[in-house]
Design a protein that fits this description.
The chain is an alpha+beta fold. 37% of the residues lie in helices and 31% in strands.
Amino acid sequence: MSLKMFKDKYYCGLDIGSQRTRAGVIRVKNPMEIELVDVFENPTHGFKDDSVKDLSELSECVHSTIEGLSEKVGIRIREVALGIGSYWVDANETSTVIPLIDKGSKVITSSDIRNVTDQARILGTKMDEEILHTICQEFTVDDNRSAINPLGLYGRKLGNQQMMIVADVNRIRNITKAINHAGYDIGNLFFNSFVASDITLDEEEKKNGCVLIDIGSRMTSIMLFRDKALRCLKKINFGGDNFTRSIASELKMTFDLSEEIKKSYAAAGNYDLYEDEEILVKNESVYITLKRAQIYSAVNPQVDNFLEQITGAINDCVGYQNLNCGITLIGGGALMPGLIEKIGESVKMPVKLGKLNVFSQKKFSNLAEIISVVGLAYNAYLKTLKYGVDAKGHSNWAKILSNKIKELYLEYF
């Protein structure tokens, strides 16, 4: 099938955070040309402390955000890929072994692989959990032979080790209801931080070992990748709001004003050069003068606490010593000046700010903040690749039929 036969298709991601609600659209001209069209955001209303507080307010917030995006990009949006934040997800690790044959050995087929992965999934999931992602980490053949892909190997027993990222069905029901009330369908549910890895990390990084840290407003996700699979997921109950609350407490300011001060003047590390610098801020109806040293003294104890928790979480992950590609930071909290350097000093690894691996004609100043919502839209597109055509644009049916015939032959003859 020629790539010219593809019509442009659009996919929308929706990320509802505790402070901002973002919607982003990508355009797929063909499987080789994917473009981020635009992102639109609004302050979040009706959603606080990681739960829905007012259904109608949240519905209106979602509607105004998606409508604002629709007007910017000139398309009508009916379906979204919804992001689930780290505060709602858990990682279940599970493993199982199934017998393939009573005596001797047989060639392992795709049906055998499907059976063992399905069995592991059943054993690792509760009735009230929604599976967002299933990450196949390893197969074992006859208990002692490890294989990334056992298809075609000989064996008499097949084992599988998985990590499943799950969310409580009851906790996400209200937020999905709010989106439906706003007039939109939910095509997919994804874990924000995990899908962000698909557009900010490359295959080489995931293969050779790396860490992705997503610093949100209330919580931070730490994910370790190796051999192209997620190996460890840790969550820290610490985010950008911790810095804001510390400034508010130290300077006796409102949270909103402290948030503005944090974004404009806060920094991690030793900034003696600017300690005597004075800034003018408006507190309600009165302008007051502050020294930047006051902001640093409010923020840096929290920075030290954060670094200790990040270092401890990474050290708790099995295989953290074998990371060849360092750490990538995303999320709004990653934008604080000096934080990248401080994390690098603490964990003794190279650290960089995340970038998008998809093209965009627009320039975004808050790139680290929008990576997750772009990842949602991108993964909505990836879901469609399971049907019809593959990434090269060719029909899979002949190949699938041929492989099935080979498997049946090996199974019975």
